């Protein structure tokens, strides 16, 4: 099995070395950079399987690095996990909207970091779910083509928007989605969105899910995600 290459962008040398040590011990090939410009050039030269990106960088910051990588067709599909400090909610939202897949907040445990890396690499191998494909997860069955939701085999009535939002979240378990991303996917980019409108839909979905309501997790200040399996 080919070893996966993880590119770590972090300007704090002690944290960088710690991350490199633990990822290497897990069998990953680790490439590093301490500056944004250096990272973009190196990643464009040789594309890694995943980028672990600190947002607070000298010169070109993490959001600019993310923007540059997602804009280039060669690197647009590389999963990016942002590393953020506490209280950077607006940066997290911006990063997710730019195309970053996930984030982790400092301070973090290496076990959590490695779990996030494994999950992101596994997701990359999975084909994206079709908007009309049937999904079964956590005893919930969602069939958009038949406009049908079953929980433990029992039908649950949902509006068109509720079913589409549920299907969107369930198709990417573990992915954090902002309210804007949810509306863009369900209604289209030109649809006017307010935080309240999305939150009201989520309240309705949770109420109808009953004992499975905890499958939709709130990510404070950012958006929502569907609970992962296992």
Task: Characterize this entry briefly.
Helices cover 41% and strands 21% of the residues. The protein is α/β, with parallel strands linked by helices and 230 residues long.
Q: What is the secondary structure topology, with strand pairs?
A:
Layout lengths: L4 E5 L3 H13 L3 E5 L2 H10 L4 E5 L7 H10 L8 E5 L4 H10 L3 E4 L4 H16 L9 E3 L2 E4 L4 E4 L2 E3 L3 H11 L6 E2 H9 L7 H15 L6 E4 L3 E4 L4
Parallel strand pairs: 1-2, 1-3, 3-4, 4-5
Antiparallel strand pairs: 6-7, 7-8, 8-9, 10-12, 11-12
Helix pairs in contact: 2-3, 3-4, 6-7, 6-8
Description of the molecule:
This protein has helices at 13-25, 36-45, 62-71, 89-98, 110-125, 160-170, 179-187, 195-209, and strands at residues 5-9, 29-33, 50-54, 80-84, 102-105, 135-137, 140-143, 148-151, 154-156, 177-178, 216-219, 223-226. The strands form three sheets. A five-stranded parallel sheet has the order 2-1-3-4-5, with helices on both faces. A hairpin with a 2-residue loop joins strand 8 (148-151) and strand 9 (154-156). The protein is elongated. Helix 2 runs parallel beside helix 3, helix 6 (160-170) crosses helix 7 (179-187) and helix 6 (160-170) packs across helix 8 (195-209). With 230 residues, it is α/β, with parallel strands linked by helices. The chain is built from eight helices and twelve strands. It has two domains: 5-125, Response regulator (Rossmann fold, 3-Layer(aba) Sandwich), CATH 3.40.50.2300; 135-226, Winged helix-like DNA-binding domain superfamily/Winged helix DNA-binding domain (Arc Repressor Mutant, subunit A), CATH 1.10.10.10.
